[in-house]
Amino acid sequence: MAASFASQVSDDTRPSAALKTKRMRMKTVKVMEDSIEVILQDPGKVLPTSVPHPVFSACTGVLLTGIYGVWTLFAVPGFRKVPWRLKVPYLPSSTAQTLNVMMLLQGRTGRLADLGSGDGRLVFAAAAKGFKCTGFEINSILLAYSKTKAHWARVPSSQATFVNKDFWKMDLSQYHNVTAFLAPAVMETLSEKLIEELPDDARVISCRFPIPNWPLQMSVGSGLDQTFAYDINTVRSSLRNVPSVVVE
Questions:
Q1: Contact 183, 88 (CB under 8 A)
Q2: Minimal CA–CA distance to 229: which of 133, 97, 59?
Q3: What CA–CA distance (Å, rounded) separates 160 from 143?
Q4: Average pLDDT of the segment spanning 82-86
Q5: Rounded mean pLDDT, 117-141
Q6: At what angle do helices 17-41 and 140-153 cross, to 10 degrees?
Q7: Beta bridge pairs of residue 219
Q8: Which residue from 129, 239, 213 is spatially nearest to 177, judged by alpha carbons?
Q9: Residue 183: which pLDDT band, with cuts at 50, 70 and 90?
């Protein structure tokens, strides 16, 4: 009887086949993401930095050309849909950046918009914390990858949705949390859009690049992995108190 009970307990606690399959899918996706991150953000880990043999140099050149070609496939397709001054190439968030964003979202709930969601890693991380996320991505290859990953991981569309829409043209007033990893050249234009559209209780989190002239609520990390949080009500109050300059 004791042996039978122990066998039953063991069977009940053994992971189901579906759970094992889901874990394998997530491990495969994680390996793919880590490979992209290493190649794009730290090629020194993949390629030697010492002076190699000329033949090896030629082979390395071919490899780098191939890597650049793959990166171009990810970065270029959506560019025709966006004005030149607002174009931002694809660069995935690092693992540290993703963790920093999650720290700055602690204690918050509601709808979240990721502006330029790329491969979807920020969206999936936030969805796992209970946010209802929308990833805006105009690159059809990255969009297909994100949707495929969501299907593999069986993430419900109520928690993570990816749309092929230009966020510059979208009304973001329904979102109380916004994340962005863009470029310094577009941050001022982005700030104008967000201050006009977001509700007072919204929080904006920017990876790597701060938003100019906005009072910082808090930041996490350092260097390339630093992330910045801004509360819209504080930003609006600060901007209202800025004295106007009269030009004579």
A1: yes
A2: 97
A3: 12
A4: 48
A5: 94
A6: 150
A7: 228
A8: 129
A9: confident
Contact 210, 220 (CB under 8 A): no
**Cα distances (Å, whole numbers) of residue 98 to 84, 126, 163, 170:** 28, 9, 21, 24
Q: How far apart are CA 177 and CA 198, in angstroms?
A: 9
Say which amino acid occupies 83. P
Asked if residue 79 has pLDDT above 70, the reply is no
Half-sphere exposure of 221 toward its Cβ, with a 13 Å CA cutoff? 24
CA 214 to CA 234: how far, in whole Å? 9
Beta strands 218-220; 227-231: pairing state: antiparallel
E strands, 104-226, are 111-115, 132-136, 160-163, 177-180, 203-207, 218-220
Helices (H), 42-174: 54-75, 95-104, 121-128, 140-153
Average pLDDT of the segment spanning 161-179: 96
8 Å CB contact between 169 and 197: no
How far apart (Å, rounded) are the C-alpha atoms in residues 204 and 202?
7
Q: In whole angstroms, what is the distance from residue 34 CA to residue 29 CA?
A: 9
Strand order in the sheet with 160-163: 160-163, 132-136, 111-115, 177-180, 203-207, 227-231, 218-220
CB atoms within 10 A of CB 111: 15
